[in-house]
Specification:
Length: about 525
């Protein structure tokens, strides 16, 4: 471990390759001038990020999440474009068709505050009186004019674009700061959640974690539903592991069970369920400060006011600082590619840049929730203020950098560290790494070693669940059932024992109730 800690002296040099952050004066903030709390939120954000006061725009808007296309044009798009012109934030000229196009701009990023509507609904035509509405087809969904306000605002300075369906995002899959890309689009993020307090906490956490770095566990929940989405999640799991972030990967078709005992979760990516469930239903669960969490679902951000419905609002309510989502059906290929998002965040980009590099479509359904300038992995180089809760995770990162191609030496060093420091977190991380390397037998025994060192029943249960997961994925159903029965009984006083019961009900469902006699 001493060798790993000494390596800290060498790590800051790695930060030289980080992308340049967006300039504060390249950000404009939009708030609802009819709601005092929206203005207060805008002022707090500007102060925290050093954004000049002349970059704030207040618009008188209705206090609702969903608006019509006419309301969007009248209350948001036209007044905002007029403010850009008045403040000389862009230079536009007409093209050959007479449409205004951006030639240069001083503003690259817009941040919408809670109070600014988030969805534009374009209702389908009503059928003739007396006739039933036709069934909703894929063609009807993909040719809709409904969109997220934020995604529509990306094209604020470009006239003449079709409102039907999605537009191609020229920033998609790029790997350069938006200021260098020099594109005629705006990157639009949003600080929004079910309450004003959650919004303030999101901003404060982003600033605090940029000083210390985001350290903790990764969790990737793979649905085994559609190959494209599953591959994104596999890529995320691999990239997190290669970054030295110990990562739990669940490959069962069901999402992680209710009350699964997660701890220190810094990164979560999962799919595919309509409403929040699993570990996030546990009243005691909280993400690590500054966490990035997202669940891939067509309507993950269909609303932001109910912290128990959909995914975006609940994840933020559980302590995440950043998430992404969709307002209406986006279709998988036109939503955020989670692997690109994660990769760009790990590379040091801001949340809003990473999110738009990951999204192939504009004028569509995507939203980015959290401080747009937040760079969660700014301190992967080992710099920043050292916190006691982060020391093991920092050491795991160092070990990955020191022995990237020698997993056996890395494993031996971490096992020695666990023994010297009497900290089972090292062993849990070794077990997760062994799983990533397909060494399931040694992983299971390592989780058993970690269980002996852990003193909290909560953590011991997690180790037993890991072993049951290994047996389940290895088709050793009888062993998995026995392990889950033992865990359900042993930890019966814990609310988290529901996780064992949930998996047990899948593998060994109870018999159906007896049929009621006919009367």
């Amino acid at each position: 471990m001493l060798r790993m800690l000494c390596l800290l002296l060498l790590l800051p040099a790695l930060g030289a390759g980080l992308p340049a952050p967006p300039r504060p004066d390249s950000v404009a903030i939009i708030y609802n001038s009819e709601i005092p709390e929206s203005k207060e939120l805008a002022d707090l954000y500007a102060m925290g990020r050093g954004i000049p006061q002349d970059r704030l725009i207040g618009l008188p808007l209705p206090d609702k999440e969903e608006i019509s296309r006419e309301e969007y044009d009248t209350l948001i798009r036209k007044p905002l474009a007029a403010e850009f012109e008045r403040r000389k934030w862009w230079d536009r000229a007409r093209d050959g068709n007479g449409h205004l196009q951006i030639r240069s701009t001083r503003i690259n990023i817009l941040c919408c505050m809670r109070g600014v509507p988030s969805r534009i609904l374009h209702p389908r035509p009503k059928p003739p009186e007396g006739e039933p509405a036709p069934p909703v087809t894929q063609e009807m969904q993909i040719s809709t004019k409904s969109a997220s306000v934020d995604s529509e605002l990306t094209m604020l300075g470009v006239d003449g674009q079709s409102l039907v369906g999605a537009l191609k995002n020229p920033y998609f899959s790029q790997n350069k700061p938006i200021a260098e890309a020099k594109l005629p689009i705006l990157l639009v993020g949003r600080i929004d959640a079910h309450s004003w307090d959650v919004c303030k906490r999101m901003m404060a956490d982003a600033l605090a974690v940029e000083a210390t770095g985001l350290w903790g566990y990764g969790v990737v929940d793979i649905a085994q539903k559609v190959p494209q989405g599953d591959q994104w999640m596999e890529d995320v799991a691999r990239d997190l592991n290669e970054a030295g972030i110990p990562t739990l990967v669940d490959r069962s078709k069901d999402t992680l069970p209710v009350n699964f005992p997660l701890r220190d979760t810094a990164v979560y990516f999962g799919w595919y369920d309509w409403n929040v469930n699993g570990p996030f239903k546990n009243p005691k669960f909280r993400f690590k400060k500054g966490a990035v969490a997202a669940h891939l679902h067509s309507f993950s951000a269909a609303q932001l006011r109910n912290p128990s419905k959909n995914w975006s609002a609940p994840l933020l309510n559980k302590g995440a600082a950043a998430t992404i989502g969709n307002t209406y059906e986006p279709f998988l290929h036109l939503t955020h590619h989670f692997n690109i998002l994660n990769r760009r965040l790990l590379a040091g980009y801001s949340l809003v840049e990473a999110a738009y590099m990951a999204c192939p479509a504009l004028s569509w359904q995507a939203v980015v929730l959290g401080d747009p300038l937040y760079r969660p992995f700014l301190r992967l180089d080992g710099s920043g203020r050292k916190e006691a809760d982060d020391k093991v995770f920092r050491a795991l990162r160092i070990a990955k950098l020191r022995w990237p191609t020698d997993p056996l030496e890395r494993e031996n060093q971490l096992r020695s560290a666990a023994k010297r420091m009497n900290d089972p977190t090292f062993l849990e991380a070794v077990g997760l790494d062994l799983l990533a390397r397909k060494n399931t037998a040694l992983a299971a025994s390592t989780f058993g070693e970690a269980k002996l060192l852990y003193t909290d029943q909560f953590d011991k249960l997690r180790m037993d669940l890991f072993v049951a997961m290994i047996d389940r994925e290895g088709k050793r159903t009888a062993a998995a059932i026995q392990g889950l029965r033992d865990a359900k009984l042993r930890y019966s006083t814990l609310a988290e024992s529901e996780a064992a019961a949930a998996w047990l009900n899948i593998l060994d469902p109870p018999p159906p109730p007896p049929a009621q006699p006919k009367k």
